Hints:
The chain is mainly alpha-helical. Helices cover 68% and strands 0% of the residues. The longest helix has 36 residues, at 22-57.
Amino acid sequence: MTAVSAGCLAAMLGDTEKTIGWQGWMVEWLLFLGLLRAVRLIWLFRLLIDVSDHDGTNVARNEPVRIIDPEN
């Protein structure tokens, strides 16, 4: 996301003409890459939330923790 932000800032700084040149294409690609990254993060967070929910709801199957005293 830092590269996307820095690229968009560089395109804004370099935009001095009245027509859209290579900066416009660069910004489109950077926005596309930022969108892909956001979708990937949402997918990963969804997986983590599903695993967390699964661990919390399957209490009946979990065995209680037994502490064994090594001295006995």
